[in-house]
Amino acid sequence: MSDHIVLLTAPEFAAVAVGPLRAEREDLTVTAAYTAQTVHELLNQHVGRNRLIGFATGVIVPPDLLRRFDAGAYNFHGGPPTYPGVFPSVFAIYDGATKFGATLHEMSNDVDTGAIVATESFDLPPTADRLTVDTLALQAMLNLLSRMAPQLVRLDRRLRLNGENWSGPVRRQRDFSALCHLPDDVSRTEFDRRYRAVGEGPNHALELSVHGHRFKLDNRRDNPIVRASAPVRRSA
Q: Are residues 133 and 195 in the same domain?
């Protein structure tokens, strides 16, 4: 029997996330997965100890699948413990936060509620836009991965907790959608605040409703789609 890590991530981050783990332990099998179905298939194929690590992924792993990882399941969250949930950079910018970072935590049945293992933090530039913050957050996640890799590759023991707690509301997709929707009487100050936080792209843009019709900001349709400094291929 051998040890196996399933790395649940996005295709553009697979190579950079696998590297620190393999560098720590050459005999360890590390396999990238991009969907919950692939995670399920990989788990069924491997005989031995299995650990799940989520890195820069929005995929939700069902509780019954999480429980099957006998060496535990951990996730790298692209935000600090003060911003659990989706799009942490967006809400941090909107709130005027001065610090941001990344969090390594145990996976649990509910998103971003698992016990915290370690964090990485940095000062947030006062004029930073969403792309800038996401890029800095990705680097913080990579720093945290490199720092914790020696422990993550030891499947014979669980990672020690650092005693930090999650705080602040767990943001959901509906919270992000509400932030994107501009009120009829939006001021220039509020518009600028939301625009800097939300940014503009094919899947995220400010919008407003007038006489039953929805209008979506679309000034930059020809710009490349970029997520945390990594180009993302456009769908046809």
A: no
Instruction: Please tell me the distance from the alpha carbon of residue 97 to that of residue 127, in angstroms, as a whole number.
Output: 11
**232 pLDDT higher than 90:** no
CA–CA gap between residue 236 and residue 234 (Å, rounded):
6
Residues near 197 by beta carbon (within 8 Å), at least 6 away in sequence: 90, 91, 93, 94, 130, 179
pTM confidence score? 0.88
The predicted-structure confidence for 157-209, as pLDDT tens digits, reads as follows 999 999 999 998 999 999 999 999 999 899 999 999 999 999 877 667 888 87
User: Do residues 177 and 135 share a domain?
Assistant: no
Q: Distances from the Cα of 169 to the Cαs of 7, 62, 82, 112, 125, in angstroms?
A: 27, 22, 8, 10, 23
**Distance between CA atoms of residues 212 and 13, nearest Å:** 41
Domain range for 141 is 4-152
Q: Quote the tokens at residue 101.
A: 């970072």
**Domain tally, the chain:** 2
Give the DSSP H/E element, type plus range, for residue 176. Answer: helix 173-180
Question: Do residues 83 and 143 both lie within one domain?
Answer: yes
